[in-house]
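> call design_seq(struct)
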């Protein structure tokens, strides 16, 4: 009798189904959705902050190169010569007196939003030197957060 019941007990497991039910899957998906809704905004906020920081760092790098250019040539590159004058000897306008470049080790980068930095010399905000800026994510003057201008003088672009 003992043997018969053992065989019968083993057969009961054969009919049992393995895997997840639809309800279990829906609960897991709902949990993942709630976590994504909580985590995603902070992740995207950090991405925006990182782009602003990257633009500020690039402008500081340009400022160092532009100051070195001015030490060698007594003037900053003109608006027409642009930031390219930091990489290659400018051929347009007044030829620099004592160009000892390249002043940048790499090609002039674009801003973190995929646009060229704006360089104006002599500047509107800084008539004795230059204005260098990125218009932020929206590509328009002013704005806040990720849309804010990133400038060499620390203020907003006034146009």
């Amino acid at each position: 009798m003992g043997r018969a019941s053992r065989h019968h007990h083993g057969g009961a497991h054969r009919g049992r189904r393995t895997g997840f039910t639809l309800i279990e899957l829906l609960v897991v998906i709902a949990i993942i959705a709630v976590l994504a809704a909580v985590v995603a905004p902070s992740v995207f906020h950090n991405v925006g902050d990182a782009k602003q920081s990257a633009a500020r760092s690039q402008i500081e790098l340009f400022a160092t190169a532009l100051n070195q250019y001015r030490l060698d040539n007594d003037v900053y590159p003109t608006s027409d010569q642009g930031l390219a004058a930091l990489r290659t000897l400018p051929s347009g306008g007044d030829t620099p007196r004592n160009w000892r470049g390249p002043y940048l080790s790499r090609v002039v980068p674009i801003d973190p939003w995929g646009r060229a930095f704006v360089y104006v010399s002599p500047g509107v905000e800084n008539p004795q030197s230059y204005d260098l800026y990125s218009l932020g994510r929206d590509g328009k003057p002013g704005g806040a957060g990720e849309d804010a201008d990133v400038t060499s003088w620390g203020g907003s672009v006034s146009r």
